[in-house]
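Here comes an entry:

___
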Amino acid sequence: MFKLKAKIIDVETGGIPVISLNEEFANKNDFHPMDRVIVKFKNRSLVAAIDTSEKIITEDEIGLFEDVWKKLRIKEGDEVEITPVEKPESTKFIRKKMDREELSKEEIFKIVKDIVEDKLTDVELTAFVSASYMEGLSMQETASLTRAIVDTGGRLRLKKKIIADKHSIGGVPGNRVTMVIVPIITSLGITMPKTSSRAITSPAGTADTMEVLADVSFSIEELTEIVKKTNGCIAWGGAINLAAADDKLIRVRHPLSLDPEGLMLASVMAKKVAVGATHVVFDLPVGEEAKLHSLGEARHLERMFKRLADVFKIKIRTIVTDGNEPIGHGIGPSLEARDVLWLLKNDRRAPMDLRRKSVLLAGKLLELIGYAKEGTGEKIAEKQIKNGKAYKKFMEIIEAQGGNPKIKPEDLPIGEFKCDYEAEKYGRIDNIDNKAISKIARAAGCPIDKEAGIYLYKHYGEVVKPGEKIFTVYSRSERRIERAIKLMNELSPITIK
């Protein structure tokens, strides 16, 4: 055990807590970077990883990053104890996976538990993700991982016989079908507590767009009350800790652009199990720039989802959809929210592709749960929009989540700086590059800047004339709109033939 004076470092590291030791002190006492120590102050303690510093920290000091001093309530100059500690047992199981051996459910649970408790470094997390990517996970391992993610996170317990849900694999800009489907389904008295993600690489996630209209961060208790009151919700899953381990794995998967199938399947299914879903419709967009590039890939994923859903006794239906271009006119939080309001209000400005896809998926979900006979679900879904009941329900959900139920599409602010992308020649739009569109929208400020984004006037197959507007880019920042224009010229997002 060593006693050192606290030096506060006002930097948050994220992940496993980190402390900094003087390099000479560390060498003398056989401490190495990324070794672990128990940091103790009064009756409080935690496990942290070691970083070393040659100059900033003296030999009698310990540098405490924000994650540590806030948790232990330590002030500058306080005396802190550190004691060496062995690496978690789960690191052995990660090495076992790297050696191409199958993991037991107990070993997987231990890995996930240590992830949630911040006992694994980013290096160790990356090793687990990489091994899962290179060696793959068996169905048994995937099911065990799903269960472990659920058991180490929070759960909604609604005590309903039928709980509907929907998931899209993603990769398509716009595509705010969730915000249309939930009001349709819940307006029929069916429970649908929808937890959604924020954007990682896209211009907006469903949670980012819903946040334009209402709060999306709630405790499990608050969310339960909202669902009891309105039959549904559209909330950010990260706020209620439904899958804490998954959020940490996504954080290391993203920089590497690694999306191991087993981890992805477990990630999706764990969130469905955590909300108590009994019936789920899966949207599988296929396209050149979508996550799924072929019908074969979609059919393979369909089989895997069905196998995993059977383990957890969830009934599912998968729908292969067109992922070759954005869905809707708006891309970016405010613009997408405006599309949704127009659609539910039966406004002529509403994007028909978003309406068609929402009605299709909602209809299939109604058929899956047995509310509608096969082939009649879409008519029921369409009727709920036409008669205004879906809109009324959406306003109830918005109000229950702390938003303004009298909000109008025209009230939503859009960035003051803008630039038009115009057709250079006469012809038909042959391709809209999803990835390029997403990059341009993010350059304009999405999703942090809710008012930024792209508004599409034309879609695939439509005729354009020279000088005609195809889309407009919006931003609140002149600097960002200039970046978006530069990218727009470099990427050539629209092909006309």
Q: What stands out?
A: The domain at 164-242+263-400 is CATH 3.40.1030.10 (Pyrimidine Nucleoside Phosphorylase; Chain A, domain 2). The first strand starts at residue 2 and ends at 9. Residues 295-311 form the longest helix (17 residues).
